[in-house]
Amino acid sequence: MRSETGVRLPVIDFSKQELKPGSPDWDSVKVQVREALEEYGCFEASFDKVADVRDVLFGAMEELFDLPKQTKQLCTSDKPFSGYHDATAKLLRESMMIDEAHIPGNIDRGLTNILWPQGNISFSKTIVSFTQLAAGLEKTVRRMLLESFGVEKYMDELNDATNYTLRAIKYGRQRTGEPTLGADAHTDKGMLTVLYQNEVHGLEIRTRDGEWIDIKPSPKSFIIMNGESLGAWLNGRLSAPYHRVVTKGNKVRYSVAFFANPRGGYRVKVPEELVDDKNGLLFKPFDYEEYLQYYSVRAARGDFTTDLKVYSNA
Ligand SMILES: O=C(O)CCC(=O)C(=O)O
Ligand SMILES: [Fe+2]
Hints:
By secondary structure, the chain is an alpha+beta fold. The protein has helices at residues 24-39, 51-65, 69-72, 106-115, 121-148, 155-160, 228-233, 288-300, 308-311; strands at 11-13, 42-46, 83-85, 93-98, 162-171, 180-186, 192-197, 203-206, 212-214, 221-226, 243-247, 253-262, 267-268, 286-287. Strand 3 (83-85) and strand 4 (93-98) form a beta hairpin.
């Protein structure tokens, strides 16, 4: 976790049994979450339970990406970045993304039944257990943040408006040994991202001082990252960190990105409690999926700089 610059991402412990709202442990973790997101836009969340699914999860990912390309390509979607995306001449990254991944049955319908028409119960079970852990952790972090900004009354509204999207990613082996770009520098567009990876590191985060730091999470940790939509909803009180993936060795890197995104059709609007004479409104209400569409057109041209400060400036 210590990079060449000496900067270390905060590690916050979410494994305590008694992490219940209002408890002393909860209040202490809440303060750490807010400070880490203010400083870095992300942190390492230590969460012992994920160790139970680790081996089967990366086994399932190997099984998925080892399927023939024509099979993977059956998973399609109209939404930007969703469905299957093959590696390109520029990037060794393959990805498979599924929407509303937290709804029981969607993993079967959108993924397993298409990839394995004869069935693959263990694949579905593995992915569903992972999404439940990740969604639980995302809700805990979001509740802490909302409490910390005094706007916890919006928790249920945001829950109803959340589309959890799961993206399984494979960064292929590269034989040159040279550092290779796996994901261009970008900011995540949704509310919060929960990342989990195998033992091959490569994620880098840009600090406020413009330095890139290597992220080397423990096998028992997720990385939690703030997205642009949450920053905008909080009227600019948090911002989304630029990050990229650079792989160096000749081992395959698997990661799972679990995104909490606002559902299409829901207008993301800054709560009135966060706007006053000293804090004027910075972001106009916006529809996340319209914004993602707008961004994806630019990203396809290699422009990853679009952000809500431009798109939705009040
Ligand atoms: O693979 C990773 O660790 C990061 C992936 C990522 O940044 C993304 O999918 O938005
Ligand atoms: Fe990202």
